[in-house]
Amino acid sequence: MLTLYLHIPFCKARCSYCDFYLVTGRGHISDFFRALSLETASRLTDLKGETVGAIHFGGGTPSMVPVSYLAAWLEEVAALCSFSPEIEITLEANPEDLDKKKMEELRAAGITRLSIGVQSFTAEKLQALGRAHTALQSRQVTAAALRLFESVSVDLICGVPGENTVMWKSDLHEALALRPHHVSVYMLSVEPKTILHHRVAKGSVTVPDDAVQAACYEHAQSELQLQGYSHYEVSNFCLPGHHSRYNLASWKREPYLGFGPSAHSFSVSQEREIRTANVSSLTRYLAAPADAVVFREELSAEERFTEQVFLSLRINSGLDVDFLRKGNKLEHTLSQTIARFSEKGWIEQQEGSLYLTQKGFLFVDLIAGEFLFG
Ligand code: SF4
Question: How remote is the CA of residue 106 from the centroid of ligand 1, in Å?
Fold first, then answer.
């Protein structure tokens, strides 16, 4: 089963914390979809004979493009491969782009799942993040989406400048009152070259310290689980059966095909695993969409092992200790490392496999890094 990702690289303005590849404005939307048709046709050999189980429209802001473009692309793809009868088609959406009519059009075009970039229900937080919507829009749109779509996800961010745990608890409470099928909880990270990074460096804003972020995240873990959401990846929680199929497939290292500027693909054939990346430039993409791939690498055994360790910890599917020992240069110190993390209460061992504890989720990268690199 294959999954597909389409990167739609348009936003109205750049949010303060965002470092994704995108351009601002609507100027090239029709050019982009013309180029996308050419890229899609050029991928015929990758698509032919395949069954697609999930499609993810990401970006950028897919909800700002006319639905007719999305529907036309889905038809083009459907003509080149098969769609699973249970296909999940997700669209990332910003609340200010959605009203009842647009959501009905999206539903009619085949979108089954909306992932709504709510981020917060607090005006100060939305302003600090540079978001264009209000809390009221988020409430109304999420409630309406829950009546129309099979699955609805809400994104929330904690650790925003000026935030404290009281504000975070209120955000989470508001989100849970809507009862979305899926909640993603992201801890704000100050990425280089973002507007937020510039403000922090200048000293005009400060982000809450790690202890506040950790308290927010731990509150989310316990509250969401209390309300019946399963914690199936570091940042992701869902009601039964509502995990993101596209994301889960990529975390399980299943093949996916990416379209559009900056999209990545992963293919597996005859024991070989290949990663490719499309050019991160709309101008270059428009000039030669059939030659969008600018990076290609075959993963070495060591890289495959490293990915497997990181990803099986992230989705907490159980990291087999024998597997970890076998491929590991640090095999001689591994027992001590495992014992150290167990004492800290970050991991637990069950039937020969390691699992993160709730506390351990906060340190997943550190744990994986120490297992692999010391
Ligand atoms: S809407 Fe999303 S992709 Fe666009 S700038 Fe904001 S965070 Fe980035």
Answer: 20
Residue range 78-122, pLDDT digits in tens: 999 999 999 999 999 999 999 999 999 999 999 999 999 999 999
pLDDT bin (cut points 50, 70, 90) of residue 168 is: very high
DSSP 69-106: HHHHHHHHHHTTSEEEEEEEEEEEE-GGG--HHHHHHH
Residue 365 has pLDDT above 80, yes or no: yes
Q: What is the CATH number of domain 302-373?
A: 1.10.10.920
Q: Which atom of ligand 1 lies nearest, measured to the CA of 17?
A: 7
Of ligand 1's atoms, which has the minimum distance to the CA of residue 130? 6
Residues 314 and 235: their CA atoms lie apart, in Å, by: 9
- Other Cβ atoms less than 10 A from the Cβ of 15: the count is 22
Band of residue 139 on the pLDDT scale cut at 50, 70, 90: very high
Domain positions in the chain are 2-250, 302-373
Alpha carbon nearest to ligand 1 atom 5, residue: 14
Assign 202 a pLDDT band (cuts: 50, 70, 90): very high
Q: Taking Cα atoms as reference points, which of 118, 52, 50 lies closest to residue 86?
A: 52
Ordered alpha helix ranges (H), the chain: 29-42, 44-47, 67-78, 100-109, 123-129, 135-148, 165-178, 195-202, 210-226, 245-251, 282-287, 301-314, 321-326, 331-343, 364-373
Q: Which residues line ligand 1 (CB under 6 A)?
A: 11, 14-15, 18, 20, 22, 59-61, 94, 117
CA of 60 to the centre of ligand 1 (A): 6
What would the pLDDT profile of 69-89 be if each residue is shown by its tens digit?
Answer: 999 999 999 999 999 999 999
Q: Was domain 2-250 assigned CATH 3.20.20.70? A: yes
Ligand 1 atom with minimal separation from the 12 CA: 4
**120 CA from centroid of ligand 1 (Å):** 14
For residue 61, the CA-to-ligand 1 centroid distance in Å is 7
Compute the distance from residue 171 Cα to the ligand 1 centre, in Å: 20
- For residue 374, the model assigns a pLDDT of 84
Which residues make beta-bridge pairs with 264? 277
| Atom from ligand 1 closest to the CA of residue 59 | 3
Nearest-atom number in ligand 1 for the CA of 94 is 1
